Amino acid sequence: MLLNLAVASALFWSGQGAAPNNQTPAVQKPQATIAAEQDDLPQVTDKKHADELKSDAEQGKKYAAEVEKQEKLSKNKDFQDRVAHIGQQLARIANHNDLIALWGDKRLNPYHYEFKVLKGDDINAFSLPGGHIYVYEGLLDFVESDDELAGVLGHEISHARFRHVAMFEHEASKSAIWQIPIIIASILAHNADVAIASRLENMSEQSGWSIKAEKAADFGGLQILMKSNYNPVAMLTFMERLAARKRFLDPLERTLGIFQTHPISRDRAETMMQNLRAYNIPIQRSKASPSYRVVAKDGFDGAVSLFFSSHKLYTFGGTEARERAELAVHRLNKFFDAVPELYDVTAGDDQIVWRGNMLIAIEPSDAEVAKTTPQQLKRQTLGAIKQSLYFLAYRVWDGW
Ligand SMILES: [Zn+2]
User: Fold this and answer.
1) Percent above pLDDT 90 for the chain
2) pLDDT at 166 over 80
3) Same domain as 127, residue 14
4) Which of the four pLDDT bands, split at 50, 70 and 90, describes residue 244?
5) Residue range 231-252: mean pLDDT, rounded
6) pLDDT category, 28, cuts 50, 70, 90?
7) Cα 14 to middle of ligand 1, angstroms
């Protein structure tokens, strides 16, 4: 969501966002459709600044019209409502709070944000100058929680808020390397041919701007989410899940879409982790995304099974199956959130143990449900947990 977002990312207008104060909006409202719950934006008194914001708005409006000529808007009203609902909460935060901009325009740049869903399977999103933010249906299918969607939107909002497109243009004007019109054209025609796409990638790599813009947007998104009701750790789970998916795609597909426009790298994920730690936000992936969560599901005859992602870990039988399962869910989520080493989990006497702490107590009633002996069930369970751990470690650390 970087470059795409960044370049595409600079307009202003449309938007709801209730302002906490009653200041007069400094920026002239665009004449087109004004959203019903218009936000009163903070006043921008500096004439030059106000003109720049206005120019962002005009530029973004032009790009938006271009996008909507080439792409179809989604007909899925639930998608549209969900994106607008979450997006406007975050836009309000961005419009009324100081944010640290690691790269880009450091001033408070308020816009009337507008969030729209485009038809298509791409797991992608982008932002145009002035706050026109677009999300493809494919991304909405991919996110596993409102928190993950909020992370993506916070990132996109940050590209607009930090005026990354204007920054790109400014930098480009100083060097002949960047051919902004080509870049914008290839961004807007998101099915741009591979030659243009790879040229764009080379240029952005050479310049280093896109990496800077991505990191700045990640950090901006983090700051916005920290001020919201959404879980910032979801920004990390989204990156990790996307990177894991990338490894399964064929090489051509890897060069397109979100991977190309917002390069996801181990470096980005590690930076995100460092920032979460710096803000004392516990990295509990289980709270951010179902893929990292142990859940209990009811089976036959009162039995309750535990799953991590889609991997079955254990089935509790007997009269206390439900209570025992719920306690185990709590312990196992803590366990997986810690991303332990394979050798940290062992088999004790009638139980599975993590560094001396009991994870699952093997009862004869459970062995009965599994139609095996407690001894055998213990071995199987240890194997299942280790397999899940391996799967988790692969997703979290390896193969980037
Ligand atoms: Zn981005």
Assistant:
1) 61
2) yes
3) yes
4) confident
5) 81
6) very low
7) 21
Three-state SS for 14?
A: coil
CA of 125 to the centre of ligand 1 (A): 8
- Do 212 and 254 fall into the same domain? yes
How do beta strands 132-136 and 114-118 pair?
parallel
Q: Are residues 243 and 385 in the same domain?
A: no
Q: What is the pLDDT of residues 332-375, one digit of tens each?
A: 999 999 999 999 999 999 999 999 999 999 999 999 999 999 99
CA pair distance 1, 292, nearest whole angstrom? 23
The domain tally of the chain equals 2
What separation in Å is there between the alpha carbon of 216 and the centre of ligand 1?
9
Q: Reduced to 3 states, what is the DSSP secondary structure of residue 316?
A: strand
Output the CA 5–ligand 1 centroid distance in Å: 5
Shared domain check, 307 and 275: no
| Beta carbons of 33 and 240 less than 8 angstroms apart | no
Query: Ligand 1: distance of its center to the CA of 140 in Å?
Result: 17
Query: Residue 335: CB partners within 8 Å, gap ≥ 6?
Result: 345, 354, 359
* CA of 100 relative to ligand 1 center, distance in Å: 16
Distance 284 CA to ligand 1 centre (A): 24
> 102 CA to middle of ligand 1, Å?
13
Centre of ligand 1 to C-alpha 126, Å, is 7
Q: Are residues 318 and 240 part of one domain?
A: no
Q: How confident is the model at residue 7, as a pLDDT?
A: 36
